[in-house]
Amino acid sequence: MKLQINNLYGGYGKSDILKGISFSVNTGEILYIVGKNGSGKSTIFKFLLRFLTPSKGEILLNDKPIETYSTKEFAKFIAYIPQSHNTVFGYNVLDIVMMGRTPHLTNLGSPSSEDYQKAVDTLKLLGISHMANKNYTKLSGGERQLVLIARAICQDAKLLIMDEPTANLDYSNQQIILNTIQKLSESGYTIIMSTHSIDQPLATSSKILLIKKGKSIAYGNTTETLTSDFLECIYGIPMDILSVLDRNGNKRNVCLPLIS
User: Which of 114, 234, 242, 253 has the most crowded Cβ, counting Cβ within 10 A?
Assistant: First the structure.
């Protein structure tokens, strides 16, 4: 699985929000997109999901322009996991996850026993089988995020696009989601996600794209790219990246704003 963006320009109407964005992500990699509110993170996702058309540049999926895929073909490669999801209907969790099988159904077709088993297996994979018959609208934010990830996996897409998947979650649920994302990466899923937490990309071996006002400030391996200077450029405040040891003696990197 390979997604490549080359010199991407575009936005809404005649205005280019993105100006020359380039990056690539391959099988098993996590790419974090980091920037202030209004920097263009969500706009990048809209181009990747084909909601917007570039005014210049190209987006290639497995070396093929994304606009050349049919809707069903495209859905078999890429799944989107929103920051939050609400439904007025009281679907149970298994029904929500089963919706991920839609790209694989024929017109007017119904899910098969194999589709049902795929949903059951996906819940088991994420350790949430006990939630199968729970009402989705009654779940906590962290539980809903896990269900949305399960729906994406059930879709059989190997590239997952996540819009701030840990936003508004308590710390323990953030860690559950991040641990799940790391395990998916290790099992071959490709993940592109936005975040406002600098500590998240610091905690994983990953790639990072730092953007400001629709332009790329830095892109590359997190360890080499995520520096105090680049963070100050993006956020406008002095920030330090420090190395600390946890209780088990493991070296951890954390980001701290300087106190004036």
Answer: 234
Buried-exposed string 102-140: b where 16+ CB fall within 10 A, e elsewhere: ebbeeeeeeeeeebeebbbebbebbebeebbeeebeebe
Closest CA to 216 of 30, 14, 2, 31: 31
Residue ranges of domains in the chain, CATH in brackets: 2-77+158-257 (3.40.50.300), 90-156 (no CATH)
How many angstroms separate the CA atoms of 135 and 138, rounded? 5
- Output the six-digit token pair for 40: 């263009």
Q: Which residue has the tokens 């190209």?
A: 58
The pTM assigned to this predicted structure is 0.89
The per-residue DSSP string of 69-138 comes to: S-HHHHHTTEEEE-S----SS--BHHHHHHGGGGGGSPTT----HHHHHHHHHHHHHTT-GGGTTSBGGG
* pLDDT for residue 1: 84
pLDDT in tens, 149-182: 899 989 888 999 999 988 888 888 888 888 889 9
Beta strands per DSSP E along the chain: 2-12, 15-26, 30-34, 56-61, 64-65, 78-81, 159-163, 190-194, 207-212, 215-221, 239-245, 251-257
Taking CA atoms, 248 is separated from 29, 31, 179, 244, 252, in Å, by 27, 28, 18, 11, 11
